[in-house]
Amino acid sequence: MPLFTFATIFPTIISAVFLILLFPDISVSYLAWIALVPFLQAISRARSKMQSLAAGFVMGLLFFIVTLYWLTNVSAVGWLILAVMQALYFSLFGLLVY
User: Fold this and answer.
1) For 89, what's the count of Cα atoms within 13 Å in the CB-facing half-sphere?
2) This prediction's pTM
């Protein structure tokens, strides 16, 4: 069984983009009501716990890599490590909701 399928990754990426658009530079605040809906739909379509975990990790990693960009001024390695660490919370959420 593949780890990534279109039914789980595409909604996950859409949800990450919606969450990124909520932040002050762009501030499309009305998306807050629907930002997590594609992610939750992707988790419900996941066929295994690993797919759900992977969907959460991809969403968290995309979201935190973009929103924590300012940390590259301090440390690029720290930026990537923190983004991965924070993405683990999203993957845990995906696993628990599955």
Assistant:
1) 6
2) 0.91
